[in-house]
Design goal:
CATH topology: Nuclear Transport Factor 2, Chain: A
Strand order of the largest sheet: 2-1-6-5-4-3
CATH architecture: Roll
Number of domains: 1
Low-confidence stretches: none
Radius of gyration: 15 Å
Distance between the termini: 43 Å
Number of helices: 4
Structural class: alpha+beta
Oligomer: single chain
Order of helices and strands: HHEEHEEEEH
CATH class: Alpha Beta
Mean pLDDT: 96
Amino acid sequence: MRDQTETLIRRYYAAFNGRDWAGMISCLSDDVIHDVNQGGRHRGKAHFSSFLAHMEKCYREELKQIVVLSSADGAHAAAEFVVHGAYLATDEGLPSANGQKYVLPAGAFFDVKGGLIARVTTTYNLKDWMAQVGA
């Protein structure tokens, strides 16, 4: 189970890096829980698709140095990575965007059920990101 979970998480991030949003969505359960960094909790693939569309508008990111770990039963996983990004369009409540580049350590926690991601919680240091984009 551990290997299957780690393969799933790597496929999820490969889709992210390939800007393959349908590929990312295919890794998720229908009722996926998405905990946004310093934001709310959202549920379902429809919300996640909207989130991805918003991210594509405001940011261009690539994840590097991805490390994936999982529990022996494959029910839980974690990933650590470095986000290399550009801030393309001003996101509500955040500083003005003008293509600022940033490099930001981040991580995520996952619950996996039935071979799909049932929860993803992403975390990063928002103050670090804001300093890098000139807030």
